[in-house]
Amino acid sequence: MKLLGFYNYTVVLTYAGAAAAICGVFFSASGYPFWGVICLLFAGLTDMFDGKVASTMKRNESERAFGIEIDSLCDLISFGVLPIAVGYGIGLSGAFFYISAMLYLLCAIIRLGYFNVDEAQRQRGETTRRKVYYGLPVTVAALIFPLIYGLSGLLGAAMPVIYQIALYCTAVAFVLKFKIHKPSGKELVLVLAVGIAVAALVISRGG
């Protein structure tokens, strides 16, 4: 019996991140936003390395196109839906939150859809790795929202308000057309170090 899709080791991290994100949504909706944030951090970690893992295997055009699609679809869950669920888990509600949630998710969808089109066109004309992104990558959500959550002890009662404002600001940044350099080498190490620092901050806060 044949299955749809492509199955090899290059998809494992992508699917692991999506599975963690789904768990994070359940945790957050059940009143455990701490674990939702942990899942968000884990999804960010898997996203950092799934492309590098995929590049170790020689793939045909269909496999590469499939990889682009599943990466964006999983990113929508991890960095689109999950931050909203965490916001709900920390007690955000009401019209202002619902509007921010809808705007955030729509902008994430637009950003990811645009990236897929742009990347497909780029790969038809280039064989080198991507050097720049347009708009804020949705994966940055794996640092922004855990950082706000981790600083809740310092922010106090203002933390939910700041979290909600961050949803609006990040949504706009997703769709603004500006160039941002794609990190590589030492820059990736720096991003990883920042992620570890944010994770330590979140863990120190506790559930």
What report would you give on this structure?
This protein has a two-stranded antiparallel sheet with strand order 1-2. It is globular, with a radius of gyration of 17 Å. It has 207 residues and is an all-alpha fold. The model has no long low-confidence stretch (mean pLDDT 90). Helix content is 73%, strand content 3%. The termini are far apart.
Poorly predicted regions are none
Question: What share of the residues lie within helices?
Answer: over 70%
Using only C-alpha atoms, the radius of gyration works out to: 17 Å
What is the averaged pLDDT score? 90
Measured between the Cα atoms of the first and last residue, the distance is 45 Å
**Largest β-sheet summary:** 2 strands, antiparallel
Overall 3D form = globular
Order of helices and strands: HHHHEHHHEH
Number of helices: 8
Helix- and strand-based class? mainly alpha
Oligomer type: single chain
Characteristics:
two-stranded antiparallel sheet, mainly alpha, 207 residues
Tell me briefly what this model is.
The chain is an all-alpha fold and 207 residues long. The protein has helices at residues 12-29, 33-54, 61-89, 95-125, 141-150, 152-155, 159-175, 186-205, and strands at 132-134, 179-181. A two-stranded antiparallel ribbon has the order 1-2.
List the helices and strands and how they pair.
Layout: H1 12-29, H2 33-54, H3 61-89, H4 95-125, E1 132-134, H5 141-150, H6 152-155, H7 159-175, E2 179-181, H8 186-205
Antiparallel strand pairs: 1-2
